[in-house]
Specification:
Layout lengths: L1 H29 L6 H30 L2 H30 L1
Helix pairs in contact: 1-3, 2-3
């Protein structure tokens, strides 16, 4: 049962990663078009946080590969949760500035 759950979470993580990359490239390309300095700074901080999360997620993925099977279930859940939070934040910024 846990194998099915981990597989499902991995598929969700991969889908969210593609969505996150799509949002990141869109927001990065639109950053110079924002006129307000405060909004541009807020968006650039979100993009910087996303780059840091990308490094953190790769480290977490590596840890998941080397941990025993009893431990990787909560780690995969955490990975998917953090990825979801990042996608939600970037999607909210996209809707706020470009809708």
């Amino acid at each position: 049962m846990s194998t099915i759950f981990v597989t499902l979470m991995t598929i969700i993580f991969i889908g969210e990663s593609f969505w996150e990359f799509r949002l990141f490239t869109f927001l990065t390309s639109q950053l110079p078009m924002i006129r307000s300095e405060r909004e541009r700074q807020q968006l650039s901080m979100a993009l910087k946080l996303d780059r840091r999360w990308n490094w953190g997620s790769w480290i977490l993925i590596f840890i998941i590969f080397v941990t025993p099977s009893a431990v990787y279930l909560p780690l995969v859940s955490l990975l998917c949760l953090f990825e979801t939070l990042m996608v939600m934040r970037m999607d909210r910024l996209k809707r706020q500035y470009f809708s």
